[in-house]
Amino acid sequence: MRLGSWRFCPSRASTIAVLLLLPVLLALGCWQLDRAAQKAELQTSFAKRFAQPPVDLAGIDPADSSNRYLHVVASGRYDGAHQILLDNQVHDGQPGYQVLTPLRMAENTILIDRGWVPLGESRQVLPDIGVSTDDITIGGWLAQPASPGLRLGDAAGADQRWPRVIPYVDYQRLSAILGYPLQPAVILLVPEAPEGYWRDWRPQFGGFGPERHRGYAVQWFALAVALIILYVFASARRLPRSE
Questions:
Q1: Nearest partner of 83 among 56, 54, 60, 113, judged by Cα
Q2: How far apart are the C-alpha atoms of 154 and 176, rounded to whole Å?
Q3: Which of 18, 76, 207, 224 sits at a 20 to 30 Å CA gap from 100?
Q4: 75-118 pLDDT per residue, tens
Q5: Please, what's the b/e burial string for 121-154 (b: 16 or more CB within 10 A of its CB; e: otherwise)?
Q6: Sign (positive or negative) of CA dihedral 196, 190, 137, 98
Q7: What is the pLDDT of residues 34-74, one digit of tens each?
Q8: Which distant-in-sequence residues (6+ apart) come within 8 Å of 113 by Cβ?
């Protein structure tokens, strides 16, 4: 193809490379934009429901995804003898645990996330997370616990002592260990409630919020544009001037 004093004559190898790489770069950019939209939607949902008046947990289905971040109240007793420490939880660069305590209610049981505690001197020395077992009414927001991208190891944890340190939450596995069924959700304990630890329930997404994903999308699209520019310049040849 000739354009003025330039001729566009790409090689077969470069054309094949562009045809293979360009869709991948564009797909990655679109995927990052989609992830940004999903996380922005979660942030918006949380912000809308954060200040809403609470509803009784007994009247809703905790497993329904439409109830995520719903403000609820629940009454029962903590099972202080069988608490769970969700491992590999980081706050300000410091490793620690999320404290998950079963709340035994009249008809069922749900895990209460009482907040984050730091790792002790070693993994052999577990933090003291003792809690009252009197009747209590708590408030919080329905959610799902942090989950690793790759689930490694037994969900029941390697150590059989209590509190039980686990790598991730598997409700069925934990139900078998506890000896009673668990609702497939957790309640994020309100910050002002007693017997809790460090709590900031705004969605953090492990440090990858919508803005980070949008930035990655821009990078992928920029690489796609750069690929096209390089392809054009590498394939363009100036024609010799005619005498």
A1: 113
A2: 13
A3: 207
A4: 999 999 999 999 989 888 899 999 999 999 988 999 999 999 99
A5: eeeeebeebebeeeebebbbbbbebbeeeeeeee
A6: negative
A7: 888 877 877 777 777 777 888 999 899 998 988 888 999 99
A8: 98, 99, 100, 140, 143, 145, 186, 187, 188, 189
